[in-house]
Amino acid sequence: MGPLSRDAWAQRLGAFRASPSAFMAGPEGEDLGRDLLGDLRSEKLSEQTKVSLLALSLEYPAQLWPDVSAAEVAATSLLDTLVLLPPRPSALRRPLLLAATTALAAGGALGPTSGASCRLLPLLLGLAAGSDLGRGFVPASEQRPLQATACECLRELESCKPGLLGGSLGLLRGLLGQEGPVQPLSLLLALALRNTLVLQSRVGAGLGGLLTDKVSPTGGGPWDWTLVEEGDGRLQPQAPSWPAAEEGEGERSLTAREHSPEEARELRAAVIQLLDTSYLLTPVAQAQLLWLLGWALRGLQGQPPALFKPQLVRLLGTAQLTLLHAVLALKAAFGEALFTAQDEALLLRRLTLAAQHPALPPPTHLFYLHCLLSFPENWPLGPEGEEAAPLLLGPQLCRGLLPSLLHDPMALLARLHLLCLLCAEDEEEEKGHLPSPRHYLEELLAGLRQRAALDEGPRALATVCFQASYLVTRCLAGQPTVLTPLIHGLAQLYRVRPMLASHFVDFLDQVDSELREPLKVVLRQEVVSRPGRDEALCWHLKMLAKVADGDAQSATLNFLQAAAAHCMNWDLQQGLLRVCRALLRAGVRGGLVDLLQVLARQLEDPDGRDHARLYYILLAHLAGPKLGVALGPSLAPPALASSLVAENQGFVAALMVQEAPALVRLSVGSHGVKGPLPVLKLQPEALEPIYSLELRFRVEGQLYAPLQAVHVPCLCPGRPARPLLLPLQPRCPAPARLDVHALYTTSTGLTCHAHLPPLFVNFADLFLPFPKPPEGAGLGFFEELWDSCLPEGAESCVWCPLGPQGLEGLVSHHLEPFVVVAQPPTSYYVAIHLPPNSKLLLRLEAALADGVPVALRTDDWAVLPLAGDYLRGLAAAL
């Protein structure tokens, strides 16, 4: 098929972008990548259309090149297309470089054994260096754009394989002082320097002469993969993440070796060179550069943080969030070694004033608040029991950041977090006109509870109230002056709006025991003080199931006895039984026995009566420790599926499909040639008795139509099973691999699934005979088929080796059903139908002792190599 037109490609790309997965699963999906690579060399398509094709390969490399071999082939083809471009300026050079780089990186083909990698890396380094690659490869007008693109490609490859450019540090450093794109070269050198320092420190080596050696990028020698192979290829991401900067393995290892004076001097010069040119970069690129260099030098002996001081002076007043983030990352990395007290005060005041600006969009406002919360001096450390250093952030500085009920939830919680930090330092009432932070906190929480208590109020108000309460308990744990009013306020909230019981249950699961236990006591008192016929009985039972324990048994049982008469529906009865279960686990006996007897007789639902009867039997016959074990989760799978078994986790497991080792084996039997479709005969063999077996098959690629599942009622080991017939519906006559998945039930009642070894459909498994011609018309029928293959088809001739049985034995073993004309033992004409609509014709004539020449014709040229391989392997199969 020739190249597609521009309109055809536009329609095809539109269908792909609409649903990439559906397109790749369709009949055109398999050929998309191959057609794309082929049409890039077509002269009938414009450069604009080819650029759109390359853009697709940049956006969806995993779909177009799904494995290593496909990525290798794609990268090789893209590089060949790049080399074949004429020497005039072209819009394809940069997209081709990016596409080849993306194919290798996304497909996992980058490595020393990849031919495309060995071609691409010297090419990229030569373009980045501005070298003359000969043959007018780089027109003068494209020199600088191609140099920048090559740097970006090298940076992507260095990120995939850290240490890849370790041997080119000296070359990159020399390029930075020449005329060229400053930003791409700076980021590339910084990344390569950081990776090299980390990897060399891990193996206990130094930089040696890496910063001074000028390596020729196109010298023709093999690429040095030593540093890549010595590292494990896993480094922290390049995005600034300063709270985690103290925990990286790479940074800790940087202190393992001190560099020699010469190495330290060259490293310092390289860092200064990068920092001196950083002002020419965009804000995002500057932040990336500062973070990379800060990580590379953090903890490195002989490299003082004062190298960053000029940049710090320049950036302390920046209005760019990315640069401000980079400054905070330097502070987290170096602390007092780089920042003076005046610097810290200036930076903190700047963050505080910026966070109060009324015109800030919500994301920016939250960013400033997050920076204030993460500022190291706002989290002073000190030994337990001793007084820590005071907060750098005081009430006077952040009085404009106090939370209000008018703020949106995210901003309110962030500001509340700041207020909690102030309350941790607030031991006494503040002097002067400002209210105490602790008093302000209590008023704010009271306002949040009032909003959450509104009848039919939005659920979001209650959610914010509980989020704020949890934040206060986490930040101010151990301060009873704050926790006591919080507990009583939450109890009052439940009294007013018991339908928030689910929020209270979640809240109790999250808080520490210091708050959980007293809150459970007051909530239990609130519940049992209500009459059992309360309209909110379902919420009271839900809450009581969470807070009930061995205390206040009498009041709890009285409440339950009064509530039992009003539990008329299934939900209320189940809630009542959950409370009984909680009391059982808490060791309550006494009046619980009488209550369970009453429930076992009076409950209308049989499932509820069974539960009550079970609880009564357990309570009457088991002591406390054994009772707790009986009510806990069971480790054994249940034998029955009754409602009683729902009390343990084993019943839940019985209802789930579990992954298990394969208990069935499949083998491919003899090939049948009857019917309109090829059929694969499968022979199953069970290792254990299994039931309701369902075998599901999936074909890799789009070679065959979806296959139907095969069902077997029962399989037992030692019993012969009938063969299973799997009809095949090829979309093209080619071998295939079938992935097999089994779903079955074991003798214990569990439903399991397992992956079986793949099955392979051979080329001969697709053979079907043509209808038998009338008696005596075989030769004419064959000649008609023979002539119909050309000119659209193809023909060839192969040598088929013969075994000791000769040509007649070979035909009888393999080709007997397909013989149309036979003149044994020297001549056979064979006609094979290949679904869906192809044919393969063979003339076996003039056989010799060691082989026979076979003339082939087919109407599908793709069949020829498959047929040749099949014929050459016939003698070995005898």
Explained architecture:
The chain has 36 helices and 14 strands. The chain is flat. The chain is an alpha+beta fold. It is 50% helix and 11% strand. Strands 9, 10, 11, 12, 13 and 14 form a six-stranded antiparallel β-sheet that branches. Strands 1-8-7-4-5 form a five-stranded mixed β-sheet, with no helix packed on it. Strands 2-3-6 form a three-stranded antiparallel β-sheet, with no helix packed on it. The protein starts with 5 loop residues before the first helix and ends with a helix.
Features:
about 900 residues, alpha+beta, 6-stranded antiparallel beta sheet, about 10% strand, flat
Element layout with pairings:
Elements: H1 6-18, H2 20-25, H3 32-39, H4 47-59, H5 61-64, H6 68-83, H7 93-107, H8 115-128, H9 143-160, H10 169-176, H11 182-202, H12 226-230, H13 249-254, H14 261-276, H15 283-297, H16 309-315, H17 321-334, H18 341-355, H19 362-374, H20 409-425, H21 437-452, H22 459-475, H23 480-496, H24 501-510, H25 513-528, H26 537-547, H27 553-564, H28 570-585, H29 591-602, H30 606-621, H31 624-631, H32 649-654, E1 657-659, E2 664-668, E3 679-686, E4 690-699, E5 710-715, E6 724-727, E7 736-746, E8 751-761, E9 768-769, H33 778-788, E10 794-801, H34 806-814, E11 819-823, E12 827-834, E13 838-844, E14 851-858, H35 863-872, H36 874-877
Parallel strand pairs: 1-8
Antiparallel strand pairs: 2-3, 3-6, 4-5, 4-7, 7-8, 9-12, 10-14, 11-12, 12-13, 13-14
Keywords: Protein transport, Transport
Domain AP-5 complex subunit beta-1 beta-barrel: 690-759
Domain AP-5 complex subunit beta-1 N-terminal: 35-104
